[in-house]
């Protein structure tokens, strides 16, 4: 990955209508590692390992396709309920990923941010996540948002709690609570809402991912399992996004004769 391949992103909010620019923010639910492995008679861990390779491809493709922010759902708050061995495998893959890839991501001018709950993470994992954020803080290229130990309902609960505390302490007038204020209290406070949410593996669910932020996102549900995701799949999802009419609940200006 080289920083010379300048992306064509825009900081402008998308206008209603058929998008002219690539999606500013793409968020991905990387699903199907286990089924990919099972279909090949391989252990689940092999599916997750291949999932990390697909994740690298997705980062490179986002950079090349001119996406500004890429959010990857890497570990949900619900994933703790998996067998301890699988949880441990996923933690180890994150350790490996940061240790092996951080220098290259930094060189590619990628900024890493982490969203999700930090309180109950193993201390070394937290240390690595903070190191990734600190090392890349000043980078101006692709914004890579890693959703780790993330749950959208938990994120909203935590925001509501802080807003309620501010109101109770007289620091906030409840009449001033609006959608913008709630957005500002989420982990994604300074990241624009996703324009496109991709989910692999054929499941048609959002699974507690960016519930508030996806209010007007376009969705692409792909039949392939995550380890098979590649630049072509990313391009096709973006092409599909660019053929949609985004209306944000309104109506587009009437066409002549329509
Ligand atoms: C879904 O597959 C995948 C996850 C649990 C999260 C994504 C994980 C990776 C891409 C690999 C780990 C990478 C890091 C950086 C932690 P699944 O196990 O739910 O698949 P299934 O639904 O087919 O069982």
From TrEMBL:
Mg(2+) binds at residues 31, 218. It comes from the Bacteria. One of its GO terms (molecular function) is transferase activity. It is an enzyme of class 2 (transferase). Substrate binds at residues 32-36, 44, 48, 76-78, 80, 82, 199, 205-207. Gene3D superfamilies: Decaprenyl diphosphate synthase-like. Keywords: Magnesium, Metal-binding, Transferase. Pfam families: Prenyltransf (PF01255). InterPro entries: UPP_synth-like, UPP_synth-like_CS, UPP_synth-like_sf. Its cofactor is Mg(2+). The active site is at residues 31, 79. Catalyzes the condensation of isopentenyl diphosphate (IPP) with allylic pyrophosphates generating different type of terpenoids. Belongs to the UPP synthase family. HAMAP family: ISPT. This is Isoprenyl transferase. It comes from Chelatococcus sambhunathii.
């Amino acid at each position: 990955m080289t920083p010379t391949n300048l992306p064509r992103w825009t900081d402008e909010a998308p206008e209603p209508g058929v998008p002219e620019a690539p999606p500013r923010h793409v968020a991905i639910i990387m699903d199907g590692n286990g089924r990919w492995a099972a279909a090949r008679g391989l252990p689940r861990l092999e599916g997750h390992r291949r999932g990390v390779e697909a994740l690298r491809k997705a980062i490179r493709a986002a950079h090349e396709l001119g996406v500004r922010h890429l959010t990857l759902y890497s570990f949900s708050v619900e994933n703790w309920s998996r067998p301890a061995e699988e949880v441990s495998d996923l933690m180890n893959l994150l350790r490996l990923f940061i240790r092996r890839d951080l220098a290259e991501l930094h060189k590619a001018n990628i900024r890493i941010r982490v969203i999700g709950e930090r309180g109950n993470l193993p201390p070394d994992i937290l240390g690595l996540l903070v190191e990734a954020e600190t090392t890349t803080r000043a980078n101006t290229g692709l914004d890579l948002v890693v959703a780790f130990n993330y749950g959208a309902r938990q994120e909203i609960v935590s925001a509501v709690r802080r807003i309620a505390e501010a109101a109770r302490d007289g620091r906030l007038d409840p009449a001033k609570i609006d959608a913008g204020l709630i957005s500002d209290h989420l982990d994604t406070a300074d990241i624009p809402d996703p324009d496109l949410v991709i989910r692999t593996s054929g499941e048609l669910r959002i699974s507690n991912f960016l519930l508030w932020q996806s209010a007007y996102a376009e969705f692409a549900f792909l039949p392939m399992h995550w380890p098979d995701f590649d630049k072509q799949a990313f391009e096709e999802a973006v092409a599909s996004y660019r053929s949609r009419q985004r209306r944000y609940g309104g109506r587009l200006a009437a066409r002549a004769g329509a």
